[in-house]
Amino acid sequence: MKEVQVKVFDKQIYPTHSDEAENTFSGNLAIKGEDIFITYKDKSTGVNTIIKASKEGISVTRMGAMNGKLKFEVDKPYKTSYGTPYGEMPIEIQTSKTDVYLLEKGIKIYIEYKILMNDEKVSDNLFMIVAN
């Protein structure tokens, strides 16, 4: 396990507007066999995040003020209930692209996906993590 800086960029595109955020956290990077693990804690919210990239796809697990697990596999919809400070939200994730890049000193993960609620598209999303 190696201590790293984890840069997280996410963008949501809604019918009327878009939101984007970029944050940097202290975290850890571990490679176990063919699986890659990135962990970090957002100290402002108290949320711990574990990102796992494997042959089966990419998963993002959050624990704290927001609880939930999201799975990203191209062309495999994933339904879950996502816990937010406002309550549980049933959502469906439809992933169109995932890429994992080995960098000279770390890892880059790139994901494009849609979020649906009640079979209606809520947003198009981009999620990128660089750990080095």
How would you describe the overall organization of this protein?
With 132 residues, the protein is mostly beta strands. The chain has one domain: Calycin beta-barrel core domain (Lipocalin), CATH 2.40.128. Helices cover 0% and strands 78% of the residues. It contains no helices and ten strands. Strands 6-5-4-3-2-1-10-9-8-7 form a ten-stranded antiparallel sheet, with no helix packed on it. The radius of gyration is 14 Å and the shape is globular. It starts with a strand and ends with a strand. The model has no long low-confidence stretch (mean pLDDT 94).
Number of helices: 0
Oligomer: single chain
Q: Kindly provide the name of the CATH class.
A: Mainly Beta
Strand order in the largest sheet: 6-5-4-3-2-1-10-9-8-7
Short descriptors:
132 residues; mainly beta; Lipocalin; 10-stranded antiparallel beta sheet; globular; DUF1934; Calycin; DUF1934 domain-containing protein
